[in-house]
Amino acid sequence: MSRIVAGTAGGQRIQVPPHGVRPTSDRVREALFSLLAARGVLEDAVVLDLYAGSGALGLEALSRGALIATLVERDPRACGFIQTNVRATGLTGGAVRRASVPTFLKRPTDTVDLVFVDPPYAGTEDEVDTVLALLVPWLAPDALVVLERDSRTRVPTWPEGLEPEEPRVYGETTLHLGTPSG
């Protein structure tokens, strides 16, 4: 079990699929959302939660003031857990989309203010680079991309159109942040 750390659904437990999901720890999530609150990016934000797993990041964003969170996950079982978590928290604005992340991103719709990219740690480095490139047309001018990776993996290759910031390291987890350039 995991929980929503703060906001309107703070303290509520959410279900996590038993296999194939590595939820962001409460400690890292709290540090991340403190940073997001300090930047003022949560209020009325349009959010993409890619590789959503349990939906913890997107739901945390909704709990803390985001307007819409699209939670993208390819695993049908995990999608069921996310749907359950959306209903259980009572948060509005959450929409679950069952698709592979690269496929979903090939059809941009509206621009987004905040993107969480939290793929499995193993074997996805090239896919991460592809996903970052596919994100560029989705981003509002002041958007923020948050990529969570194992601290032992290589630094992602940031595409033209995204400017990386200094990574934040929390033990075995590194958060890579990027903003639109130009």
Explain the overall architecture:
With 182 residues, this protein is an alpha/beta fold. The protein has one domain: Rossmann fold. Helix content is 29%, strand content 29%. It is built from 5 helices and 10 strands, in the order E-E-H-E-H-E-H-E-H-E-H-E-E-E-E. The protein has helices at residues 26-39, 56-63, 76-89, 101-105, 125-135, and strands at 2-3, 13-14, 46-50, 68-73, 94-98, 112-117, 139-150, 162-164, 168-170, 173-180. Strands 3, 4, 5, 6, 7, 8, 9 and 10 form an 8-stranded mixed beta sheet that branches. Helix 5 (125-135) links the parallel strand 6 (112-117) and strand 7. The longest helix is centred in the N-terminal third of the chain and has 14 residues, at 26-39. The model has no long low-confidence stretch (mean pLDDT 92).
SSE order and pairing:
Blueprint lengths: L1 E2 L9 E2 L11 H14 L6 E5 L5 H8 L4 E6 L2 H14 L4 E5 L2 H5 L6 E6 L7 H11 L3 E12 L11 E3 L3 E3 L2 E8 L2
Parallel strand pairs: 3-4, 3-6, 4-5, 6-7
Antiparallel strand pairs: 1-2, 7-10, 8-10, 9-10
Comma- or semicolon-separated keywords:
alpha/beta, single chain, two-stranded antiparallel ribbon, 5 helices, 8-stranded mixed beta sheet, Rossmann fold, 29% helix, 16S rRNA (Guanine(966)-N(2))-methyltransferase RsmD, transferase, RNA_MeTrfase_RsmD, DNA_methylase_N6_adenine_CS, 182 residues
